């Protein structure tokens, strides 16, 4: 087996740097129920309330050692350092780019009486030591969703710095990372979860799950999908017969995979998807092929032998479509650029167009998660939107683009005339005029249409994207958990909250909302009024395009307020600072975003039940006072009658 060829050799010679359903909302004039602007007492908890969910950070990870030009294999043996029972120091790794300098979080000393209660949990805490653990438990103190996505991407690539990977490896060559840490991806996904998913959900063959087998005799991939729903016993029986089990949309069923993809999509700015592949020992599920996506293979369990080959010709470099199954004979005599057995904790990156195939060892099963990105997210995809818009604009604003073509162009161009020597001069003149017009198009029209074209490409991302995963803190500071609910004890709606002028808010994610100007000039009509729409992700389904694209209508007078929300992110700003004419307009504007889960408050809002309870307590006190007063009157009346009887020398 040849030594694995990866990008490590170059990294090892340098020191890594240190560390469509439309709702008509967002009008400034819309009135919102429950709006309260008279009471300006901060509408939420006290200013000195501490944030309950400030996070612990990560432990530092050793950097890659130098290997004097040899192909390095990262060796990260499991840490033998035991956690202290009393004090725990954690750091953000300098290898990962973060928005803050390194922070140290010290866990305070526990009282002696609590130590015995925690002994049962100590073993579990010590084993939960994977690098992803802090992020999975919302303990990474990075507020900006893009920087958090970059940080998590850095965890997957560790010890390769993200910037170095993007500069040297991204879409250029494969990368192999071997860690010797089986627990590196612990908590992300497991074979047990596949069984739970099958038992708790209705998965359809071909849509959610595939049973596949690569037949070495025929060199073909075979699908063994029955009709209808995937039953657990049938799936596991097929697995025992040698079939690979591919879950096509694990993020629909797995909270952790959903969280990983929704976090990474903030960094990549495009759809990030995933499949899981479970292969029994001594088996292969797929024929050699290349994909139309950039793939990160995260080996979760077991071992798998991978061979990766460079594209066979220039047309297959960064292809726009996947290859389908390739004939195994095509690989005869072709030396793989990577030939390696992946073990749990390892990662393999392959740009689209690199041919690959994997087979399990006779004594080991394999489970890996393939994270995919950058499908149909190229310069060409942008130009498909940009250039037609630029031409339309040029024809509207520049008379040169409205002049007629030469009268004889049909006699000089076309398949029949392409080799006619007599037309060469006229063809050259025609080409020269095209170049002049294209230069003018690029110089004048393209820059004007660039912003709107990028917005339209981002509009597609808003539909493709997964909805965000709410942290515990975000659930309590958004409409997800904050606000009205039914109180069965009181038999009424309770927990009523109101946004106040000084309530501090921000967008939920940097890329949860996109404002796009839609060109309404259709049918040849000259209409300068364009419609502004906001597209958002919080109502998206966890299954691809399972819901229509979610939209909000936007009034132009609210654009400055939207711009402030985007430019101030991730900082919180008070509602009263938004550039809208009146306080009622500001609260109405924020309410329309809040009700879609697009903004969160800095801290939990006070609910009016507290005031009602105080009023009820006051009423009870008044009732008690009246009762006491009545009792006192009765006592005075009794004593008066008793005195009268005594004076009359009577007895009772």
Protein architecture, described:
There is one protein chain. This protein is an alpha+beta fold and 652 residues long. It is built from 14 helices and 21 strands. The strands form five sheets. Strands 4, 5, 6, 7, 8, 9, 10, 11, 12 and 13 form a ten-stranded antiparallel β-sheet that branches. Strands 1-19-18-17 form a four-stranded mixed β-sheet, with helices on one face. α4 packs across α8 (255-268) and α9 crosses α10. The longest helix is centred in the last third of the chain and has 41 residues, at 424-464. It is flat. The termini are far apart. The relative contact order is 0.12. The model is unreliable at 1-21, 27-115 and 648-652 (pLDDT under 50).
State the end-to-end CA separation.
116 Å
- Say what oligomer this is: single chain
Regions with pLDDT < 50 over 5+ consecutive residues? 1-21, 27-115, 648-652
Biggest sheet architecture: 10 strands, antiparallel
Instruction: Tally the beta strands.
Output: 21
Q: Overall mean pLDDT score?
A: 81
Evaluate the radius of gyration.
33 Å
Structural class: alpha+beta
Overall 3D shape:
flat
Beta content:
15-25%
Q: Please, how many helices?
A: 14
């Amino acid at each position: 087996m040849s030594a694995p060829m990866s990008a490590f050799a170059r990294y090892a010679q340098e020191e890594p740097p240190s560390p469509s359903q439309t709702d008509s909302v967002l009008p400034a004039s819309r009135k919102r129920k429950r709006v309260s602007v008279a009471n300006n007492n901060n509408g939420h908890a006290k200013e000195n309330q501490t944030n309950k969910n400030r996070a612990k950070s990560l432990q530092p990870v050793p950097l890659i050692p130098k290997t004097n030009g040899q192909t390095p294999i990262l060796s990260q043996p499991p840490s033998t350092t035991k956690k202290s029972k009393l004090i725990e120091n954690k750091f953000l790794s300098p290898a990962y780019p973060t928005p803050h300098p390194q922070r140290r979080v010290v866990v305070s000393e526990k009282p002696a009486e609590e130590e015995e209660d925690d002994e049962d949990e100590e073993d579990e805490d010590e084993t939960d030591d994977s690098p992803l653990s802090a992020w999975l438990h919302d303990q990474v103190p990075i507020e900006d969703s893009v920087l958090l996505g970059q940080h998590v991407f850095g965890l997957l690539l560790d010890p390769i710095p993200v910037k170095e990977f993007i500069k040297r490896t991204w879409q250029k060559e494969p990368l192999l990372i071997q860690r010797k840490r089986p627990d590196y991806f612990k908590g992300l996904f497991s074979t047990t979860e596949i069984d739970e998913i099958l038992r708790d959900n209705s998965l359809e063959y071909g849509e959610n799950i595939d049973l596949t087998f690569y037949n070495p005799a025929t060199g073909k991939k075979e699908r063994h999908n029955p009709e209808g729903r995937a039953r657990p016993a049938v799936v596991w029986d097929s697995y025992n017969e040698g079939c690979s089990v591919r879950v096509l949309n694990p993020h629909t069923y797995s909270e952790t995979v959903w969280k990983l993809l929704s976090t990474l999509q903030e960094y990549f700015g495009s759809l990030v998807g995933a499949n899981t592949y479970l292969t029994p020992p001594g088996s292969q599920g797929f024929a050699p092929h290349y994909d139309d996506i950039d793939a990160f293979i995260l080996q979760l369990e077991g071992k798998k032998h991978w061979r990766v080959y460079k594209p066979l010709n220039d047309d297959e470099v960064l292809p726009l479509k996947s290859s389908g199954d390739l004939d195994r004979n095509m690989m005869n005599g072709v030396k793989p650029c990577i030939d390696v057995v992946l073990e749990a904790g390892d990662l393999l990156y392959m740009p689209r167009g690199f041919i690959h195939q994997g087979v399990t060892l006779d004594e080991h099963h394999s489970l890996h998660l393939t994270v995919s990105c950058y499908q149909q997210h190229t310069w060409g995809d942008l130009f498909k939107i940009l250039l037609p818009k630029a031409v339309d604009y040029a024809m509207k604003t520049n008379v040169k683009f409205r002049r007629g073509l030469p009268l004889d162009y049909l006699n000089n161009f076309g398949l029949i005339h392409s080799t006619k020597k007599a037309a060469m001069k006229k063809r050259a003149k025609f080409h020269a005029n095209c170049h002049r017009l294209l230069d003018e198009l690029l110089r004048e029209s393209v820059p004007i249409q660039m912003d709107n074209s990028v917005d339209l490409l981002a509009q597609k991302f808003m539909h493709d994207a997964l909805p965000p995963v709410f942290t515990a803190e975000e659930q309590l500071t958004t409409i997800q958990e904050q606000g009205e609910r039914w109180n069965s004890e009181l038999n009424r709606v309770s927990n009523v909250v109101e946004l106040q002028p000084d309530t501090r808010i921000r967008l939920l994610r940097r890329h949860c909302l996109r404002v796009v100007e839609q060109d309404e000039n259709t049918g040849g009509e000259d209409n300068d009024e364009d419609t502004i729409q906001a597209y958002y992700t919080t109502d998206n389904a966890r299954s691809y395009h399972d819901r229509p694209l979610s939209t909000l209508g936007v009034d132009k007078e609210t654009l400055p307020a939207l711009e402030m929300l985007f430019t101030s992110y991730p900082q919180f700003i008070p509602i009263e600072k938004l550039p809208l004419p009146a306080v009622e307009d500001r609260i109405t504007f924020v309410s329309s975003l809040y009700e879609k889960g697009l903004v969160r408050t800095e801290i939990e809002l006070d609910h009016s039940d507290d005031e009602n309870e105080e009023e009820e307590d006051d009423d009870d006190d008044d009732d008690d006072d009246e009762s006491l007063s009545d009792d006192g009157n009765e006592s005075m009346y009794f004593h008066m009658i008793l005195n009268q009887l005594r004076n009359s020398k009577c007895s009772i």
